[in-house]
Design a protein that fits this description.
Layout lengths: L3 E15 L6 E15 L4 E8 L5 E8 L12 E11 L13 E13 L2 E14 L11 E10 L4 E11 L2 E12 L2 E14 H4 L15 E16 L4 E14 L3 H4 L1 H7 L7 E13 L2 E11 L3 E10 L4 E9 L1 H8 L4 H9 L11 E10 L2 E6 L6 H8 L15 H9 L9
Antiparallel strand pairs: 1-2, 2-3, 3-4, 4-5, 5-6, 6-7, 7-8, 8-9, 9-10, 10-11, 11-12, 12-13, 13-14, 14-15, 15-16, 16-17, 17-18, 18-19
């Protein structure tokens, strides 16, 4: 027998969402559902609204039907969806212990036919916080997206989509799947020649802060990243590079005062970055950088590696090879210490490429970095593998780098005790 209902309403309902791995639950209040001319065998209009946890609103308006009697989840649906001020930290889908979050506004269309759901729309993420120890982004990210989801296989595809931050644009595509409580993604994010000044206010979301008083005024940023894992514990691996950049208001020579006092090194109040690249590994608990390489015309080159932890603390082991005007400053420093530095660190060594190499550490935080001389053996391996030369005065028997010789060369200069 055909059955129809003139009007069907559910008022002031409640939905509770949570993970089996967490005791915390999120509540969606004032859930209202209205349908008219409800029939098992034809389309009928449907309207859904709900108050989101921590504020915000969800609405869905469209048509549904006819009902799939074998599997109701496969019932056709065409609808418009609006999400306003959804707080990601309170959705019930993210692990609250990670401290991740952001506010989402979204307008999208949803069409589900024959077991395949296609979604297309625009999503804006404000105050994004993507790693523990980071801070909310100062600018929003807007995503123009398109996806297809197989309801039978519980897996989907992210069609080529665009992520915009200011005038910077990156491209996004990949796959996602529902596995138990989790949604697992495998996404590629690439961006070419993106204006660095438009991105700097988003960097705190990934735990990277521009030093206090400084700003990126020029430069093009390139990214090639792979984002994988459950959405509440994403891991990102790939490369980031910067070309023709200027970090205004950052005097590297002043920050490296222990070295500058000996060499007469002066870089000026604006740091010009000819090129910079690094491999990164970013997880909810922090960021790791490897194969860091930079060319700074006022200084020379930098190589190294290190980490930024969940409390935004820096731990980098670096080596600077002074060239050009900087190496000239070593030779003309005038003081006995300056002359000793030029000789002990191999400024004229035939084994090097016209460079005086100085190992150092970066501690503190990314907003207030501290540059410290490395007079122990920590940088010996770094110098050997990344630079290929350390100067004749830093070599031991057989021409191999010696941590003790590095300490002997630098210990007195930086008024540190020689390593025992």
């Amino acid at each position: 027998m055909a059955v129809s209902v003139g009007k069907l309403e559910l008022n002031n309902g409640k939905i509770t969402v949570g993970s089996t791995a967490s005791q915390k639950r999120s509540t969606y209040d004032n859930v209202n559902v209205t349908a008219s001319d409800v029939s098992m065998d034809s389309k009928f209009p449907l309207s859904v609204s709900a108050d989101l946890p921590s504020g915000g609103k969800l609405t869905l308006d469209g048509t549904v039907g006819p009902l799939d009697k074998s599997d109701t989840s496969l019932t056709p649906l065409d609808a418009k969806i609006h999400v306003g001020s959804l707080n990601l930290a309170s959705t019930g889908f993210l692990d609250p212990s990670l401290g991740l979050g952001g506010l989402v506004d979204m307008d999208a269309t949803l069409s589900s036919q024959n077991g395949e759901a296609a979604t297309k729309g625009t999503l804006t993420l404000s105050k994004a916080l993507l790693v523990a120890g980071g801070s909310p982004a100062g600018v929003p990210a807007t995503v123009d997206f398109s996806t297809k989801y197989d309801l039978r296989k519980n897996s989907g595809v992210i069609n080529p989509s665009t992520v915009k931050i200011g005038s910077a644009a990156a491209h996004l595509n990949g796959t996602y799947a529902t596995q138990g409580d989790a949604t697992v993604v495998d996404v590629k994010l690439t961006g070419d020649n993106m204006p660095a000044k438009d991105l700097q206010d988003f960097l705190p979301a990934i735990g990277v802060n521009i030093p206090k008083g400084a700003s990126l005024t020029t430069g093009e940023l390139n990214t090639n990243l792979n984002i994988k894992g459950p959405t509440n514990k994403l891991v990102t691996d790939g490369t980031i590079s910067l070309a023709n950049g200027t970090l205004a208001g950052f005097d590297l020579g002043s920050k490296m005062s222990a070295i500058s006092a000996l060499t007469g090194l002066k870089t000026g109040s604006n740091l010009v970055i000819e090129k910079l690249s690094t491999d990164i590994h970013m997880a909810p608990d922090g960021l790791k950088a490897e194969n860091f390489n930079a060319v700074l015309p006022a200084l020379g080159s930098l190589v190294g590696a290190g980490t930024v932890d969940s409390k935004n603390n820096l731990d980098f082991k670096m080596a600077a090879t002074l060239t050009g005007g900087a190496i000239g400053a070593v030779g003309s420093a005038g003081s006995d210490a300056g002359k000793l530095l030029g000789t002990a660190l191999g400024g004229k060594s035939s084994n090097c490429k016209n460079g005086t190499t100085i190992p150092f550490l970066i501690k503190g935080t990314s907003s207030d970095p501290k540059f410290l001389p490395d007079v122990g053996g920590l940088a010996a391996g770094l110098l050997k593998s990344s630079l290929g030369c350390t100067g004749s005065a830093l070599t031991g028997a057989g021409g191999k780098e010696s941590p003790a010789n590095i300490g002997n060369a630098l210990g007195g200069l930086f008024k540190k005790k020689k390593p025992q």
